[in-house]
Amino acid sequence: MCYVILKVLTNIAAGSTLPLLTAVATTGKAPYNSVLTHGFVVDGEGRKMSKSVGNTVAPSDIIDVYGADVMRLWVSSADYQADVRLSKDIVKQLSEVYRRSVIHSVSCLVTWMTSIQILIKWLMQICLNSINGHCCA
User: Fold this and answer.
1) What is the DSSP letter of 80?
2) Phi, psi for residue 113 in degrees, rounded to 5
3) Cα separation values, 42 from 82, 113, 123, 129, Å
4) Whose CA is closest to 9, among 76, 79, 83?
5) What is the pLDDT of residues 47-89, one digit of tens each?
6) Coil, helix or strand for 50?
7) How far apart are CA 31 and CA 95, in angstroms?
8) How confident is the model at residue 3 (pLDDT cuts 50, 70, 90)?
9) Is the pTM higher than 0.85?
10) DSSP per position, 81-122
């Protein structure tokens, strides 16, 4: 028994019907627990990608220009249940969002580190004062 069957949205009726009908007729139950549907990767305008048209975007090209993290971000942000658009412009916009979030994270880290340094200096001053007998204890 299969737990999940993976199907493209446009092929769901034809591709799933025969195994389902055969299993129900012979065993009385479906041959899988659930169906996960997904769309195609299409170009930025929603057209099927084709080498002859020249609208393909190779993942290796994205990784070479923007890095693997931007490619991972695109994959993780895509709604796989429908057709997913991919173009150089989409990746460029996504890389800008990624760049800004990294800059913001580093800025927060620097602010935090500065606060820690101030706290350490303050604690060191308290320790030195107590060693020199300036503590009111």
Assistant:
1) T
2) -65, -40
3) 10, 44, 59, 68
4) 83
5) 988 889 988 999 999 999 999 999 999 999 888 888 899 999 9
6) coil
7) 42
8) low
9) no
10) TS-EE--HHHHHHHHHHHHHHHHHHHHHHHHHHHHHHHHHHH
